[in-house]
Amino acid sequence: MSLKKFEAFVKVVDLGSLTRAAQALGYTQSGVSHMISALEEDFGFLLLKRNRSGVRLTAEGERVLSAIRGILNSNEQLTQIIASIHGLDTGVVRIGSFSSVAVHWLPGMIQSFQQIYPRIEFKLLNGDYHDVEHWLTEGAVDLGFVTLPTRLQLTCIPLWEDRLLAILPKQHRLAHLSKFPLSEVESEDFIGLLEDSNHDIRRIFDPAGLSPNMKFTTKDDYAIIAMVAHGLGISILPELLLKNSTGSNLRTMELEPSATRTIALALADPEHMGPAAQSFANHISTWLSAHADEKAHLS
After folding, report:
1. Taking the model in full, what pTM does it have?
2. What is 182-208 written as a DSSP string?
């Protein structure tokens, strides 16, 4: 069976749209639709349900998706190994990350890596903690940035201990304190992430028996910062996320007691990872060591 059909199917699933998949692959929408139909004819069952809002997997499609991803991943690994034998630095690295890493780490990591391996291509998926864990489980990415502990049964390499800090409007009644008393979250309007990505908050509050007065929830980290700046509540966010984001109406404070998150690199399948992904995984730790001085704590 044609790998192009498999690629089209996976791209439609990942993007949730025939149109977006066609644009990403450089095909027409009718061309992608024809490939999916041909694949369904080969298999003898429907893979996708199409409606006006997009597409979604059938039960049969869900059962074959992981195997199809595995075929595509194996083909990419074979291509990279052949290229490395010929002395060519080529390949694709697929990375899943959350906002703070995608904004403050990955650009520098990729830039310095491509100075050594300019032909290697990167495919980046950015989401929340839940998204990254899902992409790693499904094999949609080779590497993913996660926080520890994680439910994933994967090889995880701890990278960085990142402080969790309170953010308040500057005119807030507690803004004059040197540290933010954690118990105050029960009496203040709190702005947080959606439940499936609120790992950092739960790790702080659950052991302390605290229940924040959750006024607003969102999937977007930077939306939280903007809402706090407009006086809609307070929040607790990682220090890396707050880098260069402390506006004129924001007060950033250490927590009392202090708390951190551990950022780690998860490897989806280290035994079958292509040379390009393996090289970039090694480069990540090297880059962090070289740039450690740039991660000074916020004042």
Report:
1. 0.72
2. GGGGGTSEEEEE-GGG-HHHHHHHHHH
